[in-house]
Amino acid sequence: MKIEGMNHFTVISSDLEKTKAFYLEILGLREGYRPPMESTGAWLYAADQKHSLLHIMAERPMPESAPGVIDHMAFTATGLQTTINILKQHGIVYKLNRMKELGVWQLFFYDPDGAKVELDFSADEPEPQQ
Q1: DSSP three-state, residue 112
Q2: Cβ contacts of residue 19 below 8 Å, gap of 6+?
Q3: Which of 129, 85, 84 is nearest to 106 (CA)?
Q4: Cβ contacts of residue 1 below 8 Å, gap of 6+?
Q5: I need a labelling partner for 55 at 20 to 30 A (CA). Which of 24, 30, 86, 116 fits?
Q6: Architecture of the domain defined by 9-59+67-122
Q7: Residue 54's closest CA among 16, 81, 89?
Q8: Which stretches make up the VOC domain (predicted)?
């Protein structure tokens, strides 16, 4: 066996519509096909990808510790300044790190239920106005 890549992340939501709106509006993901299931949820996709990237599950009890054993999920992104502007418009607190040796800007923030999200931008992106 060999791992060929990451398939998807799953987050548990206390409010499906609020969580969906967060990932659609803030991260720019799009809702797509989700096969019929007994549980309520949504599958979200990035750009024109054919496989879902993020699954949202509702109607499950929230864990005592929101991040559980997974610390965070990370996505490759573009448009650092635009993303910061969107986070500010929505009142989302964020932390920005520049990892010059890795060639990335790392932007960290939390979804409505406390899941930590990291967006990685090329170090070539201009330094944002915070």
Answers
A1: coil
A2: 11, 13, 56, 58, 111, 112, 113
A3: 84
A4: none
A5: 86
A6: Roll (3.10)
A7: 16
A8: 5-122
Neighbour count for residue 115 (Cβ, 10 Å): 22
Per DSSP (E only), the strands in 19-76 are 30-32, 41-45, 54-57, 73-76
Q: Where are the domains of the chain?
A: 9-59+67-122
28 φ, ψ (degrees, to nearest 5): 75, 20
Rounded Cα–Cα distance for residues 45 and 53 (Å): 5
User: How far is it, in rounded angstroms, from Cα 13 to Cα 61?
Assistant: 9
